[in-house]
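Preliminary data (for renewal application), protoporphyrin IX containing FE complex.
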Amino acid sequence: MTQPVVGRYPCALRVLHWLLALMLVVQFALGFGVEYGAQRLSEALLPLHFKLGVLILGLTVLRLCLRLVLPMPAVDTGEPPGLRRARSWVHGLLYLLALALPISGHVIWVWMGADRTLFVGLEVPALFVPPDDETGRALAWYVHVYGAWILLGLVCLHALAAIFRQWTRGDDFIARRMGFRKVAQGESST
Ligand code: HEM
Ligand code: HEM
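Predicted structure:
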């Protein structure tokens, strides 16, 4: 039986996909280390968590801009529309949370009055002056903490779905769509 051709994302988006995936995994480890580690460890990890978070925000914005201008591979027409819609939603939520986490983290950070130096001589602007009423801080905290758990869940779901799809179709889907190895892009047969 022949299967539809699986197109590949542009190189810049593939590089950013794997780079950001790696950075997010490290960022989760730092975040949970900050939250559940001993006080001295937590203090040492927090500035790294801040710097990496700002970098993730910048690269996610770049990725979204490139996504708008670069040609995207055709959608897989051999898939039920409901499943296609579900995948688009998960991808959209992954992007949304990859933006919401650094932004809410920044709000908490400014409220903490912590050092916003990114590198020597480069400081992230505060963008607001924290008011006396701390409702905004509490809101940002809820977004950050619950958002982190939701993002973690969605990342696992996303990775498992990609692996499951490759396994059931036996068409090297992940490498064809997001990989760098040379693969024949013609029709694949099972
Ligand atoms: C932190 C981890 C990850 C994040 C945040 C993430 C995020 C994303 C996003 C947002 C997209 C949609 C790209 C777009 O259309 O603009 C995507 C696509 C994709 N990801 Fe991931 N990903 C992660 C890890 C993984 C892993 C571990 C795998 C493989 C097991 C994987 C395989 C894929 C594949 C194959 C696609 C293309 C899906 C398609 O076009 O139908 N991703 N990823
Ligand atoms: C995509 C980027 C980010 C991810 C995935 C992330 C993830 C996490 C995680 C998993 C935690 C522990 C949550 C828990 O209590 O269970 C955490 C805590 C924290 N993060 Fe982030 N974070 C990100 C960006 C940032 C940024 C940019 C900042 C600062 C500017 C920041 C500041 C903080 C702070 C201050 C805490 C401790 C919150 C508390 O008081 O409990 N985060 N983060």
